[in-house]
Amino acid sequence: MKVMHALWLLVALVTLSGCALLAPGQKPEVHLVNVQPGSREGLEQYFVITLLVLNPTSSELKVSGMSYNLKLQGEKLISGVCGGLNPIPPYGQSTIKVPASANLISGLKIIGAFMESRSQSVDFELEARISLGWWRLPITVVEAGSIDLGEH
């Protein structure tokens, strides 16, 4: 009977510590720093994306993997996954370069929509799902904004 109580207490503590990681203001931040084109194969274009990952907590962030999507003008253009990332120290940051690919058909749709609107800016949204080694649910982080294409 004591073993069952200890087991339930352990489950409750693990659940509460997981919820604390997901508390507002405690999520890691992911920022898009750079996108460099790579090789092309068939209808797939490959890229190297540079991301800045910030850890705003007092605990080391042990990232086991990440998946990400980059949307331009609301259309998913670039996506990728990576694993084996180094831990990010408390209140620290890490710049990582990750592989990604884009479907050229999606890219043509975005170019066509952009030419029709004749806008001087492009809206983007970066969605990253960060997996922690011991926590089964990924943490989703979204950065959105606009890139001004006008001459300065």
What would you note in describing this structure?
The protein is α+β, with helices and mostly antiparallel strands. Helix content is 22%, strand content 50%. It has two helices and seven strands; from the N terminus they run H-E-E-E-E-E-H-E-E. The chain has helices at 2-21, 104-117; strands spanning 29-41, 44-54, 63-72, 75-83, 93-103, 121-132, 139-148. Strands 1-2-5-4-3-6-7 form a seven-stranded antiparallel sheet. Strand 1 and strand 2 form a beta hairpin. The longest helix has 20 residues, at 2-21. The chain is globular and about 50 Å long. It starts with a helix and ends with a strand. Residues 3-24 have low confidence and may be disordered.
Keywords:
single chain; 152 residues; alpha+beta; 7-stranded antiparallel β-sheet; 2 helices; 7 strands; 22% helix; globular; disordered N terminus
Give the number of helices. Answer: 2
Uncertain runs are 3-24
Terminal-residue CA separation: 72 Å
Structural class: alpha+beta
Q: Give the helix proportion (percent range).
A: 10-25%
Query: Major beta sheet, specifics?
Result: 7 strands, antiparallel
Mean pLDDT: 78
Biggest sheet strand line-up: 1-2-5-4-3-6-7
* N-to-C SSE string, H for helix and E for strand: HEEEEEHEE
Radius of gyration: 19 Å
Number of strands: 7
Shape, please?
globular
Please state roughly what percent of the residues sit in beta strands, choosing from under 5%, 5-15%, 15-25%, 25-35%, 35-45% or over 45%. Answer: over 45%
